[in-house]
Amino acid sequence: MASSKKLTLFGLIGITMAFFGTVRSVPSLAVTGWTQIFYMLVAAILFALPIALMSAELSTGFQEDGGPQVWVKKAMGEKWGFVTSWLLWVQMFFGMVMVASTVGILLGYVINKPDLSSNNIFIFVIILISYWGVTLLNLKFDMVKIAGNWGAVIGVYIPFGFLIILGLIYMMKHGIQPDNYLGHFKASDLVPNFKDLGTVAYLSAIIFIFAGVEISSVHANNIENPKRNYPIAVISSVIALVILNLIAGLTVSNAVPQGKMELANITQPFVIFCNDLGVPAIFVNIVSAMILIGVLVQLSAWVLGPSKSMIKVADEGNLPKLFQKRTKKDIPITFVMIQAIVISLVSFLYVVVPDVNSAFLIITITTTILYCIVYLLIAISAIRLRYKMPELNRPFRLGNKGNGLMWFVSLLSILSVIITIIVSIIPPSILKPSQYTGYMIYQVAATLVMIAVALIIYKLKKPEWKKNDLAD
Fold first, then answer.
1. What percentage of the chain reaches a pLDDT higher than 90?
2. Strand pairing partners for 223?
3. Predicted TM-score of the model (pTM)
């Protein structure tokens, strides 16, 4: 029966690309001009591929539910397994604020009020309304089943296709625009200007495009001949995503004037393309509405996903009984409500930091740092399990024999993650010098507090926290 469900190579490529297909990240890529080619190659080769390959070995070796939390627990003990699951939950506090912030911007264009896209109070209010709205809907209905896959098709793939087509037509019509982000090509533009470290900070936002790369590894068991086909699928997917994102990023860089890029506003390039190419203005309203639908569907999917993983950790006795509460529909109500409250508090950053661009970038970078801590734990676990459990059956294995290739891939991953964290703490050039110290304190404090809270909870855990199935 299992063989009838085996994925084809092309099926796995499609699924892998679906995890990372997003039109929202294009402005963060485009703002770096020609340097985006270098950044995307670094993100793909040093970040995405090593993590995806290590995750494939781990997911085929440990086939129980839980993913990274299970791998780290087996390698480093229950404490670090809990920290892993905790970080994967709390990163969404920042990630979902970043995603939800685009709702207000898109809504402004849908209702023909584009000025609202730069109104930080409006963005803050819409984050609250949209996230609490999808949270309450998920308590009542199974929104993932209702939305299905059409949300991604309408909100991601079709707009992404339109963006690439319009961008290429614009570039063929005008050539390279000297006054825009792309500017005239110079070989020196292909590598970052390390004298201006503030521009290097954008690497963190670009790496975020590939955050969650380990998720596709759950399908490594469902493909024929995983040893051969999984790396082909992952490498092909990453190459395709690099090419598509670069086409979109370069064409947007060529259209937006220097200093005018709105990082949270994917509608901006559509407005420029449509005005220049004579496309009716109603097209911008329609595309904005389509992307808005995709964002709401994505928010809806994240409301329950991480919470369902965390309640398993709570059942194992790592959190008090309060966290084990479920509704009649088996929804982990405590986690769902806590994340909604914390996301509301984090979104207040849009009031504290009046510039929408700056707030968006700061939150994106925070999310990337938290993901990087998880990837650091995964890389350490991957090499440690080679020695701790050498006899484990690994349908997909890095290297036919010996541990040399695993050492190389894991060390490459550790190096890239550490570099990403260091780069993320450098204040981006979008900020004012007076904001630099506050930015660095915020990023370091947010990361340390999130890790410390997990370690404190674990240290305080009690035997009676463990779920008793008969009693509960």
1. 35
2. 7
3. 0.84
Q: Which residues pair with 180 in a beta bridge?
A: 257
Which pLDDT belongs to residue 431?
85
Q: How far is CA 378 from its chain centroid?
A: 17
- Asked if 118 and 262 touch (Cβ cutoff 8 Å), the reply is yes
DSSP state of 155: I
Angle value at C-alpha 204, between 73 and 363, nearest 5 degrees: 85
Domain boundaries, the chain: 3-461
The rounded distance, in Å, linking the Cα atoms of 372 and 141 is 33
Nearest 10 degrees: Cα torsion 435, 449, 100, 129:
-110
Q: Whose CA is closest to 370, among 294, 434, 444?
A: 444
Output the average pLDDT for the chain: 85
Paired tokens of 349: 């950053």
Name the architecture of domain 3-461.
Up-down Bundle (1.20)
pLDDT digits (tens, 9 = 90+) for 335-355: 989 999 999 998 988 888 777
Cα 158 to Cα 290: distance, rounded to the nearest angstrom: 8
